Automatic annotation (TrEMBL), chain A:
<dbReference type="InterPro" id="IPR003339">
    <property type="entry name" value="ABC/ECF_trnsptr_transmembrane"/>
</dbReference>
<feature type="transmembrane region" description="Helical">
    <location>
        <begin position="238"/>
        <end position="258"/>
    </location>
</feature>
<feature type="transmembrane region" description="Helical">
    <location>
        <begin position="62"/>
        <end position="85"/>
    </location>
</feature>
<dbReference type="Pfam" id="PF02361">
    <property type="entry name" value="CbiQ"/>
</dbReference>
<dbReference type="InterPro" id="IPR052770">
    <property type="entry name" value="Cobalt_transport_CbiQ"/>
</dbReference>
<keyword id="KW-1133">Transmembrane helix</keyword>
<keyword id="KW-0812">Transmembrane</keyword>
<dbReference type="GO" id="GO:0043190">
    <property type="term" value="C:ATP-binding cassette (ABC) transporter complex"/>
</dbReference>
<protein>
    <submittedName>
        <fullName>Cobalt/nickel transport system permease protein</fullName>
    </submittedName>
</protein>
Automatic annotation (TrEMBL), chain B:
<keyword id="KW-0406">Ion transport</keyword>
<comment type="pathway">
    <text>Cofactor biosynthesis; adenosylcobalamin biosynthesis.</text>
</comment>
<dbReference type="GO" id="GO:0009236">
    <property type="term" value="P:cobalamin biosynthetic process"/>
</dbReference>
<keyword id="KW-1003">Cell membrane</keyword>
<protein>
    <recommendedName>
        <fullName>Cobalt transport protein CbiM</fullName>
    </recommendedName>
</protein>
<feature type="transmembrane region" description="Helical">
    <location>
        <begin position="105"/>
        <end position="126"/>
    </location>
</feature>
<dbReference type="InterPro" id="IPR002751">
    <property type="entry name" value="CbiM/NikMN"/>
</dbReference>
<feature type="signal peptide">
    <location>
        <begin position="1"/>
        <end position="23"/>
    </location>
</feature>
<dbReference type="GO" id="GO:0015087">
    <property type="term" value="F:cobalt ion transmembrane transporter activity"/>
</dbReference>
Length: 260, 247
Protein backbone atom coordinates (compact mmCIF):
# COMPACT_ATOMS: atom_id res chain seq x y z
CA UNK A 1 0.00 0.00 0.00
CA UNK A 2 2.90 2.32 0.70
CA UNK A 3 5.83 1.89 -1.65
CA UNK A 4 8.36 3.02 0.97
CA UNK A 5 7.10 0.44 3.44
CA UNK A 6 7.23 -2.24 0.76
CA UNK A 7 10.87 -1.48 -0.05
CA UNK A 8 11.73 -1.45 3.64
CA UNK A 9 10.63 -5.08 3.85
CA UNK A 10 12.41 -6.20 0.68
CA UNK A 11 15.68 -4.24 0.82
CA UNK A 12 19.01 -6.04 1.01
CA UNK A 13 19.73 -4.29 4.32
CA UNK A 14 16.58 -5.72 5.87
CA UNK A 15 18.48 -8.21 8.04
CA UNK A 16 21.05 -5.77 9.39
CA UNK A 17 20.46 -4.91 13.05
CA UNK A 18 17.92 -2.03 13.07
CA UNK A 19 19.87 -0.19 15.78
CA UNK A 20 22.86 0.16 13.44
CA UNK A 21 20.76 1.65 10.64
CA UNK A 22 18.95 3.92 13.07
CA UNK A 23 22.19 5.16 14.62
CA UNK A 24 23.79 5.76 11.22
CA UNK A 25 20.78 7.69 9.86
CA UNK A 26 20.31 9.89 12.93
CA UNK A 27 24.00 10.62 13.54
CA UNK A 28 24.65 11.50 9.93
CA UNK A 29 21.54 13.66 9.83
CA UNK A 30 22.73 15.70 12.82
CA UNK A 31 26.23 16.09 11.39
CA UNK A 32 24.68 17.24 8.13
CA UNK A 33 22.56 19.82 9.94
CA UNK A 34 25.56 21.06 11.93
CA UNK A 35 27.47 21.83 8.73
CA UNK A 36 27.98 25.47 7.78
CA UNK A 37 29.03 24.86 4.17
CA UNK A 38 27.58 22.87 1.29
CA UNK A 39 30.37 20.26 1.06
CA UNK A 40 29.33 17.86 3.83
CA UNK A 41 25.58 17.95 3.02
CA UNK A 42 26.38 17.14 -0.62
CA UNK A 43 28.65 14.28 0.48
CA UNK A 44 25.89 12.95 2.75
CA UNK A 45 23.38 13.13 -0.11
CA UNK A 46 25.66 11.09 -2.39
CA UNK A 47 26.56 8.65 0.37
CA UNK A 48 22.93 7.95 1.28
CA UNK A 49 21.97 7.62 -2.39
CA UNK A 50 24.79 5.13 -2.94
CA UNK A 51 23.82 3.14 0.15
CA UNK A 52 20.13 3.02 -0.81
CA UNK A 53 20.60 2.28 -4.51
CA UNK A 54 23.74 0.15 -4.59
CA UNK A 55 23.70 -1.61 -1.22
CA UNK A 56 20.00 -1.84 -0.35
CA UNK A 57 19.08 -2.27 -4.05
CA UNK A 58 16.13 0.09 -4.14
CA UNK A 59 15.42 1.03 -7.78
CA UNK A 60 17.17 4.30 -8.65
CA UNK A 61 14.12 5.65 -10.48
CA UNK A 62 11.94 5.27 -7.41
CA UNK A 63 14.60 6.84 -5.17
CA UNK A 64 15.00 9.92 -7.35
CA UNK A 65 11.24 10.33 -7.65
CA UNK A 66 11.14 10.27 -3.86
CA UNK A 67 13.80 12.99 -3.70
CA UNK A 68 11.58 15.22 -5.84
CA UNK A 69 8.65 14.83 -3.45
CA UNK A 70 9.48 17.64 -0.98
CA UNK A 71 10.37 20.00 -3.83
CA UNK A 72 7.10 21.90 -3.55
CA UNK A 73 7.80 22.95 0.00
CA UNK A 74 11.49 23.50 -0.66
CA UNK A 75 10.87 25.82 -3.61
CA UNK A 76 8.18 27.83 -1.82
CA UNK A 77 10.22 28.05 1.38
CA UNK A 78 13.46 29.03 -0.35
CA UNK A 79 11.58 31.62 -2.38
CA UNK A 80 10.45 33.26 0.85
CA UNK A 81 13.97 33.10 2.30
CA UNK A 82 15.72 34.63 -0.71
CA UNK A 83 13.14 37.15 -1.81
CA UNK A 84 13.95 40.61 -0.53
CA UNK A 85 11.40 43.38 -0.65
CA UNK A 86 12.80 46.82 0.04
CA UNK A 87 11.65 50.38 -0.50
CA UNK A 88 13.58 52.42 -3.05
CA UNK A 89 16.45 51.27 -5.21
CA UNK A 90 19.02 49.05 -3.53
CA UNK A 91 22.25 48.42 -5.44
CA UNK A 92 22.84 45.09 -3.67
CA UNK A 93 19.51 43.71 -4.79
CA UNK A 94 19.25 42.05 -8.18
CA UNK A 95 15.68 42.11 -9.42
CA UNK A 96 12.93 44.36 -10.62
CA UNK A 97 11.38 47.61 -9.41
CA UNK A 98 7.60 47.88 -9.23
CA UNK A 99 6.22 51.25 -8.16
CA UNK A 100 9.21 52.24 -6.04
CA UNK A 101 9.46 48.85 -4.32
CA UNK A 102 12.43 46.65 -5.19
CA UNK A 103 11.68 42.97 -5.45
CA UNK A 104 14.64 40.70 -5.88
CA UNK A 105 17.48 38.64 -4.47
CA UNK A 106 20.84 39.49 -2.89
CA UNK A 107 24.14 37.61 -2.99
CA UNK A 108 24.21 36.54 0.68
CA UNK A 109 20.58 35.42 0.49
CA UNK A 110 21.40 33.21 -2.49
CA UNK A 111 24.30 31.67 -0.56
CA UNK A 112 22.00 31.01 2.38
CA UNK A 113 19.42 29.43 0.07
CA UNK A 114 22.06 27.13 -1.44
CA UNK A 115 23.12 26.04 2.03
CA UNK A 116 19.53 25.35 3.17
CA UNK A 117 18.84 23.49 -0.07
CA UNK A 118 21.81 21.14 0.28
CA UNK A 119 21.26 20.63 4.00
CA UNK A 120 17.61 19.69 3.46
CA UNK A 121 18.62 17.35 0.67
CA UNK A 122 21.22 15.67 2.88
CA UNK A 123 18.85 15.32 5.83
CA UNK A 124 16.06 13.98 3.62
CA UNK A 125 18.49 11.43 2.17
CA UNK A 126 19.27 10.18 5.69
CA UNK A 127 15.55 9.91 6.42
CA UNK A 128 15.04 7.94 3.21
CA UNK A 129 17.94 5.66 4.08
CA UNK A 130 16.24 4.81 7.35
CA UNK A 131 12.71 4.44 5.99
CA UNK A 132 13.75 2.45 2.89
CA UNK A 133 15.80 -0.10 4.83
CA UNK A 134 14.05 -0.43 8.19
CA UNK A 135 10.42 -1.54 8.55
CA UNK A 136 8.30 0.53 10.94
CA UNK A 137 7.88 -2.41 13.33
CA UNK A 138 11.65 -2.51 13.87
CA UNK A 139 11.89 1.25 14.34
CA UNK A 140 9.21 0.91 17.02
CA UNK A 141 11.19 -1.87 18.71
CA UNK A 142 14.28 0.39 18.81
CA UNK A 143 12.21 3.13 20.44
CA UNK A 144 11.07 0.57 22.99
CA UNK A 145 14.70 -0.25 23.79
CA UNK A 146 15.54 3.45 24.04
CA UNK A 147 13.11 3.58 26.99
CA UNK A 148 10.42 5.58 25.22
CA UNK A 149 7.29 5.30 27.45
CA UNK A 150 5.60 1.91 26.96
CA UNK A 151 2.19 3.49 26.40
CA UNK A 152 3.51 5.53 23.47
CA UNK A 153 5.32 2.56 21.92
CA UNK A 154 2.24 0.40 22.22
CA UNK A 155 0.03 3.04 20.65
CA UNK A 156 2.48 3.40 17.78
CA UNK A 157 2.34 -0.33 17.16
CA UNK A 158 -1.47 -0.32 17.21
CA UNK A 159 -1.73 2.70 14.92
CA UNK A 160 0.76 1.25 12.44
CA UNK A 161 -1.23 -1.96 12.16
CA UNK A 162 -4.60 -0.25 11.84
CA UNK A 163 -3.49 2.19 9.19
CA UNK A 164 -3.56 -0.60 6.64
CA UNK A 165 -6.97 -1.88 7.72
CA UNK A 166 -8.57 1.57 7.67
CA UNK A 167 -6.82 2.56 4.47
CA UNK A 168 -8.30 -0.46 2.74
CA UNK A 169 -11.78 0.28 4.09
CA UNK A 170 -11.51 3.90 2.95
CA UNK A 171 -10.27 2.79 -0.47
CA UNK A 172 -13.21 0.44 -0.96
CA UNK A 173 -15.68 3.12 0.08
CA UNK A 174 -14.03 5.57 -2.31
CA UNK A 175 -14.23 3.16 -5.24
CA UNK A 176 -17.86 2.26 -4.61
CA UNK A 177 -18.84 5.91 -4.21
CA UNK A 178 -16.95 6.78 -7.37
CA UNK A 179 -18.65 4.02 -9.34
CA UNK A 180 -22.00 5.56 -8.36
CA UNK A 181 -20.93 9.00 -9.63
CA UNK A 182 -20.29 10.15 -6.07
CA UNK A 183 -17.52 12.48 -7.18
CA UNK A 184 -19.19 13.89 -10.29
CA UNK A 185 -19.40 17.49 -9.12
CA UNK A 186 -18.13 19.69 -6.34
CA UNK A 187 -21.33 19.47 -4.26
CA UNK A 188 -21.61 15.70 -4.49
CA UNK A 189 -17.86 15.41 -3.86
CA UNK A 190 -18.18 17.22 -0.55
CA UNK A 191 -21.21 15.14 0.39
CA UNK A 192 -19.58 11.84 -0.53
CA UNK A 193 -16.31 12.69 1.18
CA UNK A 194 -18.13 13.70 4.37
CA UNK A 195 -20.16 10.50 4.27
CA UNK A 196 -16.96 8.52 3.84
CA UNK A 197 -15.27 10.21 6.80
CA UNK A 198 -18.30 9.81 9.07
CA UNK A 199 -18.66 6.17 8.10
CA UNK A 200 -14.98 5.54 8.55
CA UNK A 201 -15.18 7.01 12.04
CA UNK A 202 -18.10 4.75 12.98
CA UNK A 203 -16.37 1.71 11.50
CA UNK A 204 -13.13 2.48 13.38
CA UNK A 205 -15.02 2.97 16.61
CA UNK A 206 -16.80 -0.36 16.40
CA UNK A 207 -13.68 -2.16 15.24
CA UNK A 208 -11.79 -0.89 18.29
CA UNK A 209 -14.56 -2.16 20.59
CA UNK A 210 -14.56 -5.54 18.85
CA UNK A 211 -10.79 -5.74 19.09
CA UNK A 212 -10.87 -5.04 22.80
CA UNK A 213 -13.46 -7.74 23.34
CA UNK A 214 -11.41 -10.20 21.31
CA UNK A 215 -8.25 -9.37 23.27
CA UNK A 216 -10.08 -9.72 26.60
CA UNK A 217 -11.34 -13.12 25.52
CA UNK A 218 -7.70 -14.16 24.98
CA UNK A 219 -6.51 -13.02 28.39
CA UNK A 220 -5.41 -9.44 27.70
CA UNK A 221 -3.91 -7.79 30.79
CA UNK A 222 -2.95 -4.42 29.39
CA UNK A 223 0.12 -5.37 27.38
CA UNK A 224 0.63 -6.74 23.89
CA UNK A 225 3.96 -8.51 23.46
CA UNK A 226 5.38 -9.02 20.02
CA UNK A 227 7.99 -11.49 18.93
CA UNK A 228 11.13 -9.82 17.60
CA UNK A 229 13.43 -11.50 15.16
CA UNK A 230 16.87 -11.76 16.74
CA UNK A 231 19.39 -9.70 14.80
CA UNK A 232 23.09 -9.97 15.60
CA UNK A 233 25.05 -6.72 16.07
CA UNK A 234 27.95 -6.66 13.63
CA UNK A 235 31.23 -5.14 14.83
CA UNK A 236 32.25 -4.52 11.22
CA UNK A 237 29.20 -2.33 10.63
CA UNK A 238 29.76 -0.40 13.86
CA UNK A 239 33.36 0.39 12.88
CA UNK A 240 32.23 1.45 9.41
CA UNK A 241 29.53 3.77 10.84
CA UNK A 242 31.99 5.30 13.31
CA UNK A 243 34.58 5.82 10.58
CA UNK A 244 32.17 7.47 8.13
CA UNK A 245 30.61 9.73 10.73
CA UNK A 246 33.97 10.73 12.22
CA UNK A 247 35.26 11.64 8.76
CA UNK A 248 32.16 13.73 8.10
CA UNK A 249 32.51 15.43 11.49
CA UNK A 250 36.13 16.32 10.79
CA UNK A 251 35.12 17.68 7.37
CA UNK A 252 32.44 19.84 9.01
CA UNK A 253 35.07 21.34 11.33
CA UNK A 254 37.63 21.81 8.52
CA UNK A 255 35.16 23.58 6.24
CA UNK A 256 33.64 25.66 9.08
CA UNK A 257 34.96 29.00 7.81
CA UNK A 258 34.60 28.41 4.09
CA UNK A 259 32.51 31.04 2.28
CA UNK A 260 29.85 28.64 0.92
CA UNK B 1 17.30 44.15 -18.92
CA UNK B 2 13.79 43.76 -20.29
CA UNK B 3 14.35 40.10 -21.04
CA UNK B 4 15.79 39.55 -17.59
CA UNK B 5 12.73 41.07 -15.98
CA UNK B 6 10.44 38.88 -18.04
CA UNK B 7 12.36 35.78 -17.09
CA UNK B 8 12.21 36.71 -13.45
CA UNK B 9 8.45 37.31 -13.55
CA UNK B 10 7.93 34.03 -15.40
CA UNK B 11 10.07 32.17 -12.87
CA UNK B 12 8.10 33.68 -9.99
CA UNK B 13 4.78 32.73 -11.53
CA UNK B 14 6.02 29.20 -12.14
CA UNK B 15 7.19 28.89 -8.56
CA UNK B 16 3.89 30.16 -7.22
CA UNK B 17 2.11 27.35 -9.04
CA UNK B 18 4.32 24.78 -7.35
CA UNK B 19 2.85 24.50 -3.86
CA UNK B 20 -0.59 23.75 -5.26
CA UNK B 21 0.74 20.52 -6.68
CA UNK B 22 2.22 19.50 -3.42
CA UNK B 23 -0.70 19.04 -1.15
CA UNK B 24 1.18 18.61 2.10
CA UNK B 25 3.03 21.86 1.56
CA UNK B 26 2.71 22.92 5.19
CA UNK B 27 4.81 20.15 6.72
CA UNK B 28 8.21 21.75 7.26
CA UNK B 29 10.51 19.40 5.37
CA UNK B 30 13.38 17.43 6.83
CA UNK B 31 16.48 19.52 7.46
CA UNK B 32 14.90 22.85 6.57
CA UNK B 33 15.14 24.30 10.08
CA UNK B 34 18.56 24.99 11.63
CA UNK B 35 19.59 22.58 14.38
CA UNK B 36 18.97 24.95 17.28
CA UNK B 37 15.42 25.77 16.13
CA UNK B 38 14.60 22.09 15.67
CA UNK B 39 15.64 21.44 19.25
CA UNK B 40 13.80 24.53 20.50
CA UNK B 41 10.48 23.35 19.02
CA UNK B 42 11.00 19.86 20.38
CA UNK B 43 11.49 21.37 23.86
CA UNK B 44 8.41 23.56 23.50
CA UNK B 45 6.25 20.61 22.43
CA UNK B 46 7.42 18.36 25.24
CA UNK B 47 5.20 19.66 28.10
CA UNK B 48 2.06 19.41 25.97
CA UNK B 49 3.09 15.94 24.90
CA UNK B 50 3.62 14.79 28.49
CA UNK B 51 0.28 16.28 29.51
CA UNK B 52 -1.34 14.34 26.67
CA UNK B 53 0.35 11.08 27.65
CA UNK B 54 -0.68 11.51 31.28
CA UNK B 55 -4.30 12.20 30.35
CA UNK B 56 -4.32 9.08 28.14
CA UNK B 57 -2.77 7.06 30.95
CA UNK B 58 -5.52 8.21 33.29
CA UNK B 59 -8.23 7.28 30.79
CA UNK B 60 -6.64 3.87 30.16
CA UNK B 61 -6.68 3.12 33.88
CA UNK B 62 -10.43 3.67 34.00
CA UNK B 63 -11.14 1.72 30.79
CA UNK B 64 -8.34 -0.31 29.13
CA UNK B 65 -10.38 -0.36 25.93
CA UNK B 66 -9.47 3.32 25.44
CA UNK B 67 -6.06 2.21 24.18
CA UNK B 68 -7.60 0.32 21.26
CA UNK B 69 -9.94 3.22 20.59
CA UNK B 70 -7.03 5.66 20.43
CA UNK B 71 -5.04 3.28 18.25
CA UNK B 72 -7.86 3.29 15.74
CA UNK B 73 -8.36 7.03 16.16
CA UNK B 74 -4.70 7.60 15.25
CA UNK B 75 -4.98 5.39 12.18
CA UNK B 76 -8.19 7.23 11.30
CA UNK B 77 -6.36 10.56 11.50
CA UNK B 78 -3.54 9.24 9.31
CA UNK B 79 -5.92 7.93 6.66
CA UNK B 80 -7.95 11.17 6.81
CA UNK B 81 -4.85 13.15 5.87
CA UNK B 82 -4.28 10.84 2.89
CA UNK B 83 -7.75 11.44 1.42
CA UNK B 84 -8.19 13.90 -1.42
CA UNK B 85 -10.33 16.82 -0.38
CA UNK B 86 -12.56 18.45 -2.98
CA UNK B 87 -11.33 22.02 -2.99
CA UNK B 88 -13.18 25.25 -3.60
CA UNK B 89 -10.47 26.36 -6.03
CA UNK B 90 -10.40 23.17 -8.07
CA UNK B 91 -6.90 22.04 -7.13
CA UNK B 92 -6.83 19.03 -4.86
CA UNK B 93 -5.59 19.11 -1.31
CA UNK B 94 -5.72 16.97 1.79
CA UNK B 95 -7.69 17.56 4.99
CA UNK B 96 -5.63 17.92 8.15
CA UNK B 97 -8.33 16.55 10.44
CA UNK B 98 -7.17 18.96 13.13
CA UNK B 99 -10.60 20.43 13.84
CA UNK B 100 -12.55 17.17 13.65
CA UNK B 101 -10.00 15.31 15.79
CA UNK B 102 -9.91 18.00 18.44
CA UNK B 103 -13.70 18.10 18.73
CA UNK B 104 -14.04 14.30 18.80
CA UNK B 105 -11.12 13.32 21.02
CA UNK B 106 -10.09 16.51 22.84
CA UNK B 107 -6.92 18.56 22.36
CA UNK B 108 -4.62 16.67 24.76
CA UNK B 109 -5.16 13.31 23.14
CA UNK B 110 -4.69 14.93 19.73
CA UNK B 111 -1.23 16.13 20.76
CA UNK B 112 0.00 12.55 21.23
CA UNK B 113 -1.92 11.15 18.25
CA UNK B 114 -0.71 14.02 16.07
CA UNK B 115 2.90 13.37 17.02
CA UNK B 116 2.61 9.69 16.04
CA UNK B 117 0.74 10.48 12.83
CA UNK B 118 3.36 13.05 11.82
CA UNK B 119 6.14 10.57 12.57
CA UNK B 120 4.45 7.98 10.36
CA UNK B 121 3.90 10.52 7.62
CA UNK B 122 7.61 11.31 7.68
CA UNK B 123 8.72 7.68 7.55
CA UNK B 124 6.00 6.09 5.39
CA UNK B 125 5.04 8.94 3.08
CA UNK B 126 8.16 11.15 3.19
CA UNK B 127 6.13 14.21 4.26
CA UNK B 128 7.70 16.25 7.02
CA UNK B 129 10.77 14.96 8.79
CA UNK B 130 12.37 13.68 11.95
CA UNK B 131 14.37 16.80 12.83
CA UNK B 132 11.38 19.03 12.11
CA UNK B 133 8.97 16.70 13.91
CA UNK B 134 8.99 18.94 17.00
CA UNK B 135 8.11 22.04 15.02
CA UNK B 136 5.44 20.26 12.96
CA UNK B 137 3.92 18.71 16.07
CA UNK B 138 3.78 22.10 17.74
CA UNK B 139 1.92 23.75 14.87
CA UNK B 140 -0.31 20.85 13.80
CA UNK B 141 -0.88 18.87 16.99
CA UNK B 142 -0.61 21.50 19.74
CA UNK B 143 -1.67 24.93 18.45
CA UNK B 144 -4.23 23.71 15.88
CA UNK B 145 -6.20 21.31 18.10
CA UNK B 146 -6.04 23.57 21.18
CA UNK B 147 -7.36 26.50 19.17
CA UNK B 148 -10.02 24.40 17.44
CA UNK B 149 -11.21 22.93 20.73
CA UNK B 150 -11.26 26.30 22.50
CA UNK B 151 -13.21 27.87 19.64
CA UNK B 152 -15.70 25.00 19.57
CA UNK B 153 -16.33 25.26 23.32
CA UNK B 154 -16.57 29.03 23.13
CA UNK B 155 -19.13 28.70 20.34
CA UNK B 156 -21.15 26.35 22.51
CA UNK B 157 -20.97 28.71 25.46
CA UNK B 158 -22.16 31.61 23.30
CA UNK B 159 -24.88 29.25 21.99
CA UNK B 160 -23.91 29.81 18.38
CA UNK B 161 -25.58 27.39 15.96
CA UNK B 162 -23.60 24.15 16.00
CA UNK B 163 -22.66 24.28 12.31
CA UNK B 164 -21.10 27.69 12.84
CA UNK B 165 -18.97 26.67 15.79
CA UNK B 166 -17.86 23.49 14.00
CA UNK B 167 -16.95 25.49 10.90
CA UNK B 168 -15.08 28.14 12.89
CA UNK B 169 -13.21 25.49 14.87
CA UNK B 170 -12.02 23.64 11.76
CA UNK B 171 -11.39 26.79 9.71
CA UNK B 172 -9.53 28.75 12.39
CA UNK B 173 -7.72 25.62 13.59
CA UNK B 174 -6.28 25.23 10.09
CA UNK B 175 -5.48 28.92 9.72
CA UNK B 176 -3.72 29.12 13.08
CA UNK B 177 -1.69 26.03 12.19
CA UNK B 178 -0.53 27.77 9.05
CA UNK B 179 0.21 31.02 10.87
CA UNK B 180 2.25 29.07 13.45
CA UNK B 181 4.28 27.40 10.73
CA UNK B 182 4.93 30.79 9.16
CA UNK B 183 6.09 32.13 12.52
CA UNK B 184 8.39 29.13 12.96
CA UNK B 185 9.95 29.69 9.54
CA UNK B 186 10.22 33.44 10.08
CA UNK B 187 11.96 33.01 13.45
CA UNK B 188 14.49 30.67 11.84
CA UNK B 189 15.03 32.85 8.78
CA UNK B 190 14.46 36.54 9.62
CA UNK B 191 14.72 38.94 6.69
CA UNK B 192 17.94 41.01 6.52
CA UNK B 193 15.91 44.25 6.52
CA UNK B 194 12.70 44.13 8.52
CA UNK B 195 13.59 41.12 10.65
CA UNK B 196 11.13 38.49 11.81
CA UNK B 197 7.97 40.48 10.99
CA UNK B 198 8.95 41.04 7.36
CA UNK B 199 9.92 37.39 7.00
CA UNK B 200 6.60 36.32 8.46
CA UNK B 201 4.68 38.43 5.95
CA UNK B 202 6.68 36.79 3.15
CA UNK B 203 6.09 33.22 4.36
CA UNK B 204 2.41 33.83 5.03
CA UNK B 205 1.97 35.44 1.64
CA UNK B 206 3.52 32.52 -0.20
CA UNK B 207 1.69 29.79 1.69
CA UNK B 208 -1.66 31.63 1.75
CA UNK B 209 -2.29 30.50 -1.84
CA UNK B 210 -2.78 26.91 -0.76
CA UNK B 211 -3.70 27.25 2.86
CA UNK B 212 -6.67 29.63 2.83
CA UNK B 213 -8.77 27.66 0.30
CA UNK B 214 -7.81 24.49 2.16
CA UNK B 215 -9.07 25.91 5.45
CA UNK B 216 -12.39 26.88 3.86
CA UNK B 217 -12.81 23.43 2.25
CA UNK B 218 -11.95 21.69 5.46
CA UNK B 219 -14.39 23.86 7.41
CA UNK B 220 -17.23 22.97 5.04
CA UNK B 221 -16.32 19.28 5.04
CA UNK B 222 -16.18 19.17 8.83
CA UNK B 223 -19.70 20.63 9.08
CA UNK B 224 -21.12 17.95 6.77
CA UNK B 225 -19.18 15.18 8.56
CA UNK B 226 -20.48 16.41 11.87
CA UNK B 227 -24.06 16.50 10.62
CA UNK B 228 -23.75 12.90 9.40
CA UNK B 229 -22.28 11.85 12.74
CA UNK B 230 -25.06 13.58 14.65
CA UNK B 231 -27.71 11.96 12.46
CA UNK B 232 -26.37 8.42 12.46
CA UNK B 233 -23.79 7.96 15.20
CA UNK B 234 -25.20 9.84 18.16
CA UNK B 235 -24.54 6.95 20.51
CA UNK B 236 -20.82 6.81 19.72
CA UNK B 237 -20.50 10.56 20.06
CA UNK B 238 -22.18 10.43 23.44
CA UNK B 239 -19.73 7.77 24.55
CA UNK B 240 -16.93 10.12 23.54
CA UNK B 241 -18.78 12.80 25.50
CA UNK B 242 -18.87 15.21 22.63
CA UNK B 243 -22.46 16.12 23.35
CA UNK B 244 -21.54 17.48 26.72
CA UNK B 245 -24.71 19.51 27.02
CA UNK B 246 -27.13 16.76 25.91
CA UNK B 247 -29.06 17.93 22.90
Amino acid sequence: MFRIDQYAYTSRLRHVHPGEKFAFAILTMFICLAASTVLVPLLVTCLAAAAVIMVARVPARFYFRLLFLPLGFLVAGLLAVTLTISRGANPAVYGLVIGGVTLGVTGPALNQAALIFTKSLGAVSCLYFLSLTTPMVEIISILHRLRVPALLVEMMGLIYRFIFVIMETAGMMYVSQGSRCGYAGIRTSFRSMAQLVANLFARSYHRSRALYTALLARGYTGEIRMWEEPRPVSAKHLVLIALVDLTLLVLVLVTWRWPV
Amino acid sequence: MKRRTCTLIFALLLLLCFPQQNAWAMHIMEGFLPLKWSLFWYALTLPFFIAGLLSIQKAVKVDPGVKMLLGLAGAFAFVLSALKLPSVTGSCSHPTGVGLGAILFGPWVMCVLGFIVLLFQAVLLAHGGLTTLGANTFSMAVVGPLAAYAIYRLGERLSLPRWLSVFLAAFLGDLLTYVTTSVQLALAFPAPDGGVMAAMVKFMGIFAITQVPLAVSEGILTIIVFNFLLAHNRQELEQLRVLSRGV
